[in-house]
Design goal:
Blueprint: E1 5-9, E2 14-15, E3 18-19, E4 23-27, E5 45-51, E6 54-59, E7 63-64, E8 67-68, E9 72-76, E10 89-98, E11 104-114, E12 117-118, E13 122-126, E14 157-158
Antiparallel strand pairs: 1-4, 2-3, 5-6, 6-9, 7-8, 10-11, 11-12, 11-13, 13-14
Length: 171
């Protein structure tokens, strides 16, 4: 629940008889569909996490909001518009979780790489600051095998040797 809205994601193409592909926003008080929010991904949304005015969406989609954005997208919670976001994945995202400080994005899924680097089913990304453009990545991010997180530029990949956290949805 954010912005007085309840987000619903899944493998549907209609909601209450209204065309809504895989992701919709409902007014939490009335239950009516928010027609301003319609990113229309081209395939299922498996999970999402809300961070301030953004919602990070993971799934099996290749495009969302009219833009090619395979498997993971960052949307504006108010209108569903795509906010530029750097990572690319080779395979679907099943779980999206956000840290309590809303500065780390935890991802789990059936993917084998991100940023062209081998990643077997889990990744940790630093969340770019709202209103600040993600840096253009010109080289591979630093990967470590230590049990603590490494500091990397916003929107880039970091790695830990701990197990992947679980994600939950709360209203």
């Amino acid at each position: 629940v954010a912005n007085n809205s309840l987000l619903v994601g899944g493998a549907f193409t209609t909601l209450s008889g209204v065309a809504r592909n895989y992701l919709a926003s409902l007014n939490k008080d009335s239950g009516f569909i928010d027609f301003a929010f319609n990113p229309a991904p081209d395939a299922a949304v498996n999970s999402f996490a809300i961070a301030g005015t953004d919602v990070f969406v993971g799934g099996t989609f290749n495009s969302i909001g009219g833009q090619v954005q395979p498997y993971l997208a960052r949307l504006n919670i108010a209108d569903g518009s795509v906010t530029p976001f750097g990572p690319s994945f080779l395979g679907q995202i099943l779980v999206v979780g956000i840290s309590s400080a809303q500065d780390k994005l935890y991802l789990g899924g059936v993917f084998s790489s991100t940023y062209g680097l081998g990643r077997s089913g889990h990744a940790l990304l630093l969340v770019p600051t709202p209103g600040v453009a993600s840096p253009t990545r010109t080289s591979s991010p630093t990967l470590t095998a230590t049990p603590t997180e490494t500091s990397t530029p916003a929107g880039s990949l970091t790695s830990t040797s701990t197990s992947s956290p679980s994600a939950s949805v709360s209203a």
